[in-house]
Design a protein that fits this description.
Layout (H helix, E strand, L loop, with lengths): L2 H10 L7 E3 L2 E3 L6 E5 L6 E6 L3 H20 L2 H17 L1 H12 L3 H21 L6 E3 L7 E8 L2 E5 L7 H12 L3 E5 L5 H13 L7 E3 L4 H10 L3 E7 L2 H11 L5 E5 L4 E5 L5 H13 L9 E7 L3 H13 L19 H16 L3 E4 L14 E4 L6 H4 L6 E7 L2 H9 L6 E5 L3 H10 L4 E4 L18 E2 L4 H4 L4 E8 L6
Parallel strand pairs: 7-8, 7-10, 8-9, 10-11, 12-13, 12-17, 13-16, 15-16, 17-18
Antiparallel strand pairs: 1-2, 3-4, 5-6, 6-20, 11-19, 14-15
Bound molecules: succinic acid.
The site of succinic acid has 10 residues, from loops.
Main location: mitochondrion
Enzyme class: oxidoreductase
Catalytic activity: succinate semialdehyde + NAD(+) + H2O = succinate + NADH + 2 H(+)
Amino acid sequence: MDAQNLTARLKSSGLLRSQALIGGKWIDAYDGKTIKVHNPATGEVITEVPCMGSKETNDAISSSYDAFYSWSKRTAAERSRHLRKWYDLLIAHREELGQLITLEQGKPLTEAMGEVTYGANFIEFFSEEAKRVYGDIIPSPLADRRLLVLKQPVGVVGAITPWNFPLAMITRKVGPALACGCTVIIKPSEFTPLTALAAAELALQAGIPPGAVNVVMGNASDIGDALLASPQVRKITFTGSTAVGKKLMAGASATVKKISLELGGNAPCIVFDDADIDVAVKGALGAKFRNSGQTCVCANRIIVQEGIYEKFADAFSKAVQNLKVGDGFSEGVAQGPLINEAALHKVESFVQDALSKGAKVLLGGKRHSLGRTFYEPTVLSDVKSEMLISREEVFGPVAPLLRFKTEEEAIRMANDTNAGLAAYIFTNNVQRSWRVTEALEYGLVGVNEGLISTEVAPFGGIKQSGLGREGSKYGIDEYLELKYMCLGNMTGN
Ligand code: SIN
């Protein structure tokens, strides 16, 4: 199906929305301004969406604040039922949502459909967790007192989300927020607002009340500033770059908001001499080339022990060579385009820096013949720790191979960064897997596995990769306040 037919079909399904959602109403920007949403594979304009700023954001905050009063008063069972209904609708529309993701983000359709399942699973998981927000009773040091701890929703949440997972990064935040009674203003990336709007339409269809979920998009800094300035917004949750995360953290201090940050990584993927080579190749391939290398948990440095280095480099390059590049809607494509020109330039400049300092191209190393923002899946050997590609996230389909001698050296190289999100190790030695996992300064460690994200496990980083955890039973705590209640005169004397 061509892009125009697809767009028409998505429009008639009611899931291609081109207005923002405030207080349950679909609206344009107050000054009528719009921004174009492009298909990164073709450059074509899919549609235009409102380019909003502080006025619209303040109205979204007011509607969210009003909705908080009634939504937080509903029983956990009621909130759970609405979330479950939302999950059912997301799954029922898995195909259309997957198509929207491929259309605006570029990832291959099978991967996009996988994201819909992954994203919807957060809503299902938190529909269940809604009923398990337990408080506590503390043994009192005084005989006539009873001490209780209540857990209560923080209030209005500003959720600022990235383009690389247009659905899952929203549901991972909105699921736990709604489950415990918070209301939300979502600010999706201007590159990928359409999936967010479709998900919000389905939230309305699930009976989640007007104002509980709002979506505004447009001028990122105006929207961000309005969310930060408002005392009614009690929490900011953000996935994106470390630089923006630091600004949000500073901005949140003015009104002392709670904040969760899921920021950039620089994931090491350590392959020891004793690894099973097939497992290591498959794991490193998944960890590096998911979403064309555009995830915060993508392996950024593949650190290989000297005894297995040549064998691994050869087997890995062969596997990478088999990755078909193309439009995400074409059959068998495993690598789509990068999101935009700026992303492509970044990849090119990192590769250039590495080559100028002695790295060698084993595969790829240049723009793909398809043109636009397609880049060839690339493997570089002889990469050194001081090269730009080892210091910062390349966020593209380039796998740099570094060499190490000893376990101590591998741990030192892996930890030699300000980032601390994901790490991967490949070894058949059980003691080593524990020892190295414990020594790695990272929030997530995959052992003999390259795909580790799931709604049931805590996702988040340490050091400058962020604050807080998303998903799992721990993820809901980020949206709760503790209230201590002291009951006096309890012995009746
Ligand atoms: C991200 O890239 O920020 C998220 C990746 C994931 O959820 O696996």
